[in-house]
Amino acid sequence: xxxxxxxxxxxxxxxxxxxxxxxxxxxxxxxxxxxxxxxxxxxxxxxxxxxxxxxxxxxxxxxxxxxxxxxxxxxxxxxxxxxxxxxxxxxxxxxxxxxxxxxxxxxxxxxxxxxxxxxxxxxxxxxxxxxxxxxxxxx
Amino acid sequence: xxxxxxxxxxxxxxxxxxxxxxxxxxxxxxxxxxxxxxxxxxxxxxxxxxxxxxxxxxxxxxxxxxxxxxxxxxxxxxxxxxxxxxxxxxxxxxxxxxxxxxxxxxxxxxxxxxxxxxxxxxxxxxxxxxxxxxxxxxxxxxxxxxxxxxxxxxxxxxxxxxxxxxxxxxxxxxxxxxxxxxxxxxxxxxxxxxxxxxxxxxxxxxxxxxxxxxxxxxxxxxxxxxxxxxxxxxxxxxxxxxxxxxxxxxxxxxxxxxxxxxxxxxxxxxxxxxxxxxxxxxxxxxxxxxxxxxxxxxxxxxxxxxxxxxxxxxxxxxxxxxxxxxxxxxxxxxxxxxxxxxxxxxxxxxxxxxxxxxxxxxxxxxxxxxxxxxxxxxxxxxxxxxxxxxxxx
Amino acid sequence: xxxxxxxxxxxxxxxxxxxxxxxxxxxxxxxxxxxxxxxxxxxxxxxxxxxxxxxxxxxxxxxxxxxxxxxxxxxxxxxxxxxxxxxxxxxxxxxxxxxxxxxxxxxxxxxxxxxxxxxxxxxxxxxxxxxxxxxxxxxxxx
Lengths: 139, 393, 142
Prior knowledge:
The complex is a heterotrimer. By secondary structure, chain A is mostly beta strands.
């Protein structure tokens, strides 16, 4: 695991609002969806009301391939929050489609992480109220 | 555009006040703000009655009306706020525009933070129940993954930068070494007589890999105040004015404070690059004319990134520029953060960098650059940025 | 009427800082004091870290006579606009003390019909909880 939790402290829950609800609805169904502009096809993350390329308000939540590479990563040696046990790693994954997502890797040691490593999405059912998209080394 | 062109050389910083940096001021932030503003006014030869404008940082706990009612300022005709780590030079711009437009005569810019003792009235995260859009990004898409501290967010940028330019992590060490060398000469700072070596840097523990403790600023209790007025009025005051030759602030598409990860390259700092273009063209000076720089060193690796973004060297050459420290120490080609900066003097969100720039122009720095006439200051690396070129004429 | 508090919704405690601590320490001792500038003697409320008249930062706490007159007042009658932990209706007054400073507070025990601007009052101290004492006012004979 690249991240372990202290179960006595709840993980900060993402605030779910109109603009980002589609992402979290997808995660609940174990699907990695992102905002996609209906006008120009641009993938938009983080979600926002307008497409930054063409300014259209017409959007949909489209399923991504779930595959990408590690674009950057860090290892927390001191934990900033009691829910997370240091050391743990956080990655920035660049999906094939071009957008990037902050997440964690599973089944890997910090020393094994490298930029460019191919990864694919998995879903971690942490609790009844929290599922998170994470990534594992792609086979 | 017209207003900005017309304010070139029309305004100046005429007063500076700065508290000592400490780990426990034993005072409220408002107390420090008042004390430091008074010091800046004394420095300029002005009284509170002369002040008719106040500019503060958005998150600063000391509201303008608390300042006026504590200091006896009876008629404010200009007040404004700037936000983000890139606030300092932007606050000078806000003040310069105010005096140049005739909205006020003498404007005070201030900042007071008990960052170390935490004797603060504003908690570090907004707790009003309402989230701003930038909080939303953090809490929705970063926090659940344990990506929660400022250090972590900067580390993500630094890792990618190291990958793109094949930088080994101890190559960033020359920045804290030089800043602490300068800070060791500065009796007002937190690290007076406490330099560090590159060995200390290598041994310094990792906080969020790849950032080490010595790469990062330490929280401090401190306050800074500046007095800004027109070049005309500056002539009648007692100090050598530091004229604002170029000033700018910037935000680009996809700007988020320290979350540059959603665009490429992550360390391009386009906001800083735009600021650089603007202040050089506005002032009409060239890079080689700059006598010293005061850059955002809240995180050491930001320094090479800013040197690149501001055009002092090519992309990817920032670390080489700083290598060994010879070009950036006092006496070198481009002395950096001569009072120590955030890493070597103390952290007051970049405001002390402006004070040091003024001191260089006045000839009273603790690491004085010979005949310093042109100083560049930059704030807000990695987010909404701002910058300033101050001159002695 | 004496004010009634709901134990389920405690009163918000005053935010005590280094600059105003002297005021609240005195209240705890059942004394009403006001900030006084050591250099020019200006008496001022609310406390602040610098004298607005002479810019001195040397302050002391000067005892008040405790006597004043109502300068203005309001009556909280509508629950949505009042503090939920206090039973409505309740009076909030601004009293102008004999020394000249004004202080906001409650009437300790008064009916809305009986109070008026200019009414002479004097301070009393209400030990509401172990960690909360508040100055309040009651009618006095002028």
